[in-house]
Amino acid sequence: MIMQLTTELAVIREREEPGPLLTKPEHVAEYLGDIKNLAQEVFVVIGLDAKNHVLQRHLVSLGTVSSALVHARECFRPLILDGASTVILGHNHPSGQPTPSAEDIKITRQLISAGEVIGIKVLDHVIVGSQGHLSLNEAGLVQF
């Protein structure tokens, strides 16, 4: 058993070239440009390395025109596997208006708490729409 564990630990994935650098909400909004005009709400997590380079973006939920079901388990599972240091949450509003709902703020707070337990810091939650974007961090709507 110990030998098997040692062999498994010896298999280390090679890192690809660093992905885009996301340091400002504008960068995130640009990175999420492909979802801003969708007719359904989608929720994604963007796993980042220690220097805020994108490791991977994962679709967590594909919802309806007005909501998407989001749970911490589905958000953090791919981030743990990617070895993410931090995460940026993102979703679109099919209405075009990026104003956060009470549910957006609630789920953000829940994911921040879950991230603290797991050790993956939530840096921001950016909402995009055809009429612009909004950073919950920049707007001061949630304590990150």
Task: Give a summary of the structure in a few sentences.
The chain has 144 residues and is α+β, with helices and mostly antiparallel strands.
Structure description:
This protein has 144 residues and is of the alpha+beta class. It has a single domain, classed as Cytidine Deaminase, domain 2 (3-Layer(aba) Sandwich). Helices cover 31% and strands 25% of the residues. It contains four helices and five strands, in the order H-H-E-E-H-E-H-E-E. The protein is globular and about 35 Å long. Keywords: Hydrolase, Metal-binding, Metalloprotease, Protease, Zinc.
User: How large a portion of the residues is in β-strands, by DSSP E?
Assistant: 25-35%
Largest sheet: 5 strands, mixed
Helix run count:
4
The first-level CATH class name: Alpha Beta
**CATH superfamily membership:** Cytidine Deaminase, domain 2
Shape: globular
Q: Mean pLDDT score, rounded? A: 91
**Spans with pLDDT under 50 lasting ≥5 residues?**
none
Keywords: Hydrolase, Metal-binding, Metalloprotease, Protease, Zinc
Protein name: MPN domain-containing protein
Pfam families: RadC
Domain MPN: 21-142
Protein traits:
144 residues; alpha+beta; Cytidine Deaminase, domain 2; five-stranded mixed sheet; 25% strand; globular; metallopeptidase activity; metal-binding; protease; MPN domain-containing protein
SSE blueprint:
Elements lengths: L1 H9 L14 H7 L10 E7 L5 E9 L9 H11 L3 E7 L9 H17 L2 E9 L2 E4 L9
Parallel strand pairs: 3-4
Antiparallel strand pairs: 1-2, 1-3, 4-5
Pfam family, one: RadC
InterPro entries: MPN, RadC_JAB, UPF0758, UPF0758_CS
Protein name: MPN domain-containing protein
